[in-house]
Structure formats: structure tokens, C-alpha cells
Amino acid sequence: MRAKDRIIVALDVDSLDKAKSLVESLAPHVGCFKVGLELLTAVGAPKVVEFVHSLGGQVFYDGKFKDIPNTVAGASRAVTRMGVKMFNVHCLSGSEAMKKARDAVDKVVNESEFCVRPLILGVTILTGLEFKDLVEIGIFDFDVKLGCITDECQKCLEKYRMENLVVHLAWLAQKCGLNGVVASPKEISAIRKECGSDFKIVTPGIRPEWAAKNDQKRFATPAEAIKAGADYIVIGRPITAPPAEIGTPADAAKRITEEILAVL
């Protein structure tokens, strides 16, 4: 895989007019475009996918399917017929839903000689969430506070619990036949160790040194993520709205490609 093919650009816009110039300028310099809830809801999924394909781009359909198994299967059939490169299902939807997604893709591909098999990715824990957020929503039953340990040790304990959860979800996704997971840069090495070299890891939360961190809480630079074992990195604003000193979106993509090449 070429260095540029590892870059997935997040099209976090609300219209095709806003997406058009980005796709046209970036398609030669990146591997894929992530279309998410904002654009899919504003415009309509088939129209968005067809639009990106018409401009020479490939699509990561970031629909984050999370529903009962039959509904997840139906959505997986529909998105496979659109010809996307990859799509995702929440691991927290459960093993039956993930297996149904895999079976739905298999059925569509086997029935059509023209349909390309997409990668099915499991969403582990969103990169906008950290340990305290998982305590708040009840994924962790309580926030362990031990008066006998230092703040540094407390942070290590929280990191250990978060990593164990993410790795378990990745293991479950692999067991259910998914091709990989979407996971924070902080868990890449542990997932790679648990799931092996063929299991795909798509990593959002990527921020070059020269970019603002924005709302990402568990992030890394492109070089750090690739060096840790990520197959693909998802980057939004640092490419689509780069700082003036970086130049155009294409300039930003080229700079990130160079950073990836330096560690491959």
C-alpha cells in the first residue's frame, strides 16, 4: 500500500458544493474519503457515495451502524451495493449484529460479480471519549479512586482499563469475522499484538504537530500512528482547513504523506 493510500480524509461538511472542491483537489493525493452523519443526513447516502465516486474518490461510509441484528444486516446489504471501500458497525451492537453484517456482505458479493467486497470495521470506543466519560455513561460501573496511590498511578489504572476494553472489543470484532476496527491511536499497539498483522486498524484522532487538537481527546501524530501499527489514518480539519502557513488542502495531504514515508 502506498503512503498516500493510508490517508482517509473526513468530509465533515453539509453539502456537495462544499465537498466538491475538496474531493477534486485531494483525490490524487489520498486513498479515501470518509463520509459521515452530517453529509449523509444532509444530502442522502446514495447521492453522496455516487458523487465521490464520480470525482475519482473512494468512500469510507462512516454510518456507525448500531441497531438490532436484522437492521444492521439490512444496512450492510445496502451499503455494500453502493460500492464503498469500507464501512463500520459499532462493536457495542453485539456479536450477533456484527456476524449479521458480515453474512449480509458475503451474500451481496457472492450474488453479484460486479460488487467489490468492502472492509467491515468495528467501532470500539469513540476518540472523543475518555475514561471519565465512560464512567459517566455507565460502561465502567464506578470510578476507582484509591487514596493510597498517586495521581500518576491513578492515570495508569484508568489507561489500563480503557485499553483492556478496546482490545476486548477488537478481539470480539475479529471473532465475528470483521476485517478490522476503528480505534484510538492509544490502543493501536495493544490491538495489533492481540489481533495480528492482517487485522486492519483505522485510526481517527490524528493531529499533526502543526494542527490544532480541536475536540479530540485521545490523539497522535500521523507518524506516531503509523509507527504504532495503524493501516489507515483518518484526518479532517488539518487537511480540509489547514493553517495558512501550510498552504492548500493538497499541500497538507502531501506533507502528511511525507511524514508517513519517513516512518515506513
What does this molecule look like?
The longest helix has 25 residues, at 151-175. Strands 1-2-3-4-5-6-7-8 form an eight-stranded parallel beta barrel, surrounded by eight helices. It is α/β, with parallel strands linked by helices and 264 residues long. The protein is globular, with a radius of gyration of 19 Å. The protein contains eleven helices and eight strands.
Q: If strands are numbered along the chain, what order do they take across the biggest sheet? A: 1-2-3-4-5-6-7-8
Question: Beta fraction of the residues?
Answer: 5-15%
The count of DSSP E runs of length 2 or more, i.e. the number of strands, is 8
Number of helices: 11
Instruction: Please report the distance between the alpha carbons of the first and last residues.
Output: 11 Å
Radius of gyration: 19 Å
Oligomer: single chain
Net shape: globular
Q: Mind describing the biggest β-sheet?
A: 8 strands, parallel, barrel
Structural class: alpha/beta
List low-pLDDT spans. Answer: none
Mean pLDDT across every amino acid position: 93
Summary tags:
single chain, alpha/beta, globular, 11 helices, eight-stranded parallel beta barrel, 8 strands, 264 residues
Topology (elements, then pairings):
Elements: E1 7-10, H1 16-26, E2 32-35, H2 37-43, H3 45-54, E3 59-65, H4 69-81, E4 86-90, H5 95-111, E5 119-123, H6 131-136, H7 151-175, E6 180-182, H8 188-195, E7 200-203, H9 222-228, E8 232-235, H10 237-240, H11 249-261
Parallel strand pairs: 1-2, 1-8, 2-3, 3-4, 4-5, 5-6, 6-7, 7-8
Helix pairs in contact: 2-3, 4-5, 7-8
